[in-house]
């Protein structure tokens, strides 16, 4: 459960930080949006180090799958872009990949 919470927290930090920078640069929001976004992205870089998995590559590969799902949900909730069937199928495939990467049987 801790691993999942850390993946979600990292995903929200990356997406949220990037979104604030996007708003600042692309949608003429104040500069401080981008600065806050940059700070949040620094925090995002720290969060995955709290994972108990020993391999950087596996943690980041698994995080990538979680990031895809969170991005679809962010687009739905924040940008009001309703996911279609293929968004959901792709998200499910990504989550299956996360499970295989982190908890697949290994020697």
Automatic annotation (TrEMBL):
Q: Report if keyword ATP-binding is assigned.
A: no
Mind naming one GO cellular-component term on file for this protein? plasma membrane
- What are the subcellular locations of this protein? Cell membrane; Endomembrane system
State the annotated membrane topology for this chain. Answer: Multi-pass membrane protein
Q: Does the keyword Oxidoreductase apply?
A: no
> One Pfam family from the UniProt entry?
UPF0060
Which keywords has UniProt assigned to this entry? Answer: Cell membrane, Membrane, Transmembrane, Transmembrane helix
List all membrane-crossing ranges. 30-47, 59-76, 88-105
Q: Can you tell me which family this protein belongs to?
A: Belongs to the UPF0060 family.
Q: Can you say what this protein is called?
A: Small multidrug resistance family-3 protein
What species was this sequence derived from? Answer: Anoxybacteroides tepidamans
